[in-house]
Amino acid sequence: MEEKKRSELTNEELLQEAKKMKSASIINALLIGFLIGIVFFSVMKNTWGFLTLIPLFFIYKLINNSKYKNSELENLLRERNLK
User: Fold this and answer.
1) pTM for this one?
2) Per-residue pLDDT in tens (0 to 9) along the chain, 83 residues
């Protein structure tokens, strides 16, 4: 099934998408906290390498990806006066 563009969604579908994004942002926050814990543990053990660099890369990707998607959805909600 082909996924619709966000601008083509109905108001109800757009509100459901907003709920999904809210739960996804909570999960992203938990993952970022876990990865920061791994980096902190690595720094405390004085080990620099993949154990430190890989979580930093994933943190960067999670933060950048969520900013783009959230801003697009918030703009659509404001345009339709749903929020």
Assistant:
1) 0.71
2) 345 677 777 888 888 888 888 888 899 899 999 999 988 988 888 887 777 888 889 989 888 877 667 778 888 888 888 76
3-state secondary structure of 61: helix
The C-alpha angle with vertex 67 and arms to 3 and 38, in degrees rounded to 5, equals: 110
Q: Treating both helix axes as pointing N-terminal to C-terminal, what angle do 11-44 and 50-79 enclose, rounded to 10 degrees?
A: 160
Sequence ranges of the domains in the chain: 18-79
Cβ–Cβ under 8 Å, residues 39 and 48: no
Pairwise CA distance, residues 54 & 4, whole Å: 33
